[in-house]
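Look at a sample.

——
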Amino acid sequence: MSTATPTDWHTRPAPATAEEWIARAAEVSAVLATDAAARDRAGVTPHAEIQLLKDSGLVTLLGPVEHGGAGQDWTTAYRVVREVAKADGSIGQLLGYHYLWNWAARLVGTREQWEHVEAEAARNQWFFGGAVNPRDQDVVVTEDGDDLVFTGRKTFSTGSKVSDVTVLEGVFEGTDQHVFAIVPSDSAGLTFHDDWDNIGQRLTESGGVTLDGVRTPWSSAAGFVDKTFQPRVYNTLNVPTIQLVFVNFYLGVAAGALETAATYTRTKSRSWLHGGYDRATDEPYVIDIYGDLTAKLWAAQALADAVAAEGQRLHDDPDAVTPEARGAFEVRVAAVKARATDVALEIGNKIFEVTGARATATAEGLDRFWRNVRTHTLHDPVAYKRREVGRWVLDGELPEPTWYS
């Protein structure tokens, strides 16, 4: 990674407002941008990049102020993810997932549990990973005295080797009851594999994980009191919350693609020899495409910010979240997820039309933007997001909570 890491974050006053934290994220993004293409090609585990997030204070953005966190809310966190993803989609995803898993204790756990987790996470600058791929139903949880034992395998475990703690998910043996627990990432029996070899999001450490009798105290089972789960509607807000993480790092990648392409067009692109213009920046077709893509990106960003504000109102009063409010929010999230997917894919593709043939050189790395968005947008089919919106428009039907809605 670049050695241009700022050295004055620890001597400057910490950011105090949302705007200042977004500016700090922009500083982090500028550091990541210096060698983003080279790091993408190398595919090295991003230990230095995660340390950069810790040194900058972004890791504890959502943490309680009294324990060293920034005390910011989700509207700021989403903007921070977007800024970081401009330079590096992988690191933007890692940070966004970290925020969700850090917040998961509050979503699912008891007050005593989440207050403890958030305090420890802020004080120790924990970076969270998660072995919670919902399509894998092969992690079984058994009881052994005062402990729970997790055994099985997950296909994906984002953040694995760069995490300090990992959120585990499994099903109690012989039941359909899921259980979540946070364990140290170096726990005995927890083995992360080097099998993440996809075309995009190469630095997310999203490979498989084996759980060979990973033990954790019963008291760490999120939301359980006397071994019985205490359900709340707020528990189900985990899906729309992380779907907005997806939205914002897609839009961040798209913004980074446009900015990088525009710099290339201004400094390296040649005008077409039959166009009659001396500069590529005077080509009317080039101007039109940049204008079109920018307008689409701005519209998607505005919708994303509006939906984030709607979600924050639910986070502000968790006990008041109703099934109807939760369902209405999910419809809005589905709509912006569909828009962000289409816009980011279009931008990642069309930037080559305004940069030219030489921009396809591996050294330029412009392909990483499309590869990153294309890879992650397959997480769940966007057609099903549009279906949620369409069902609501035609029948007033609100989506039921699932692992993907």
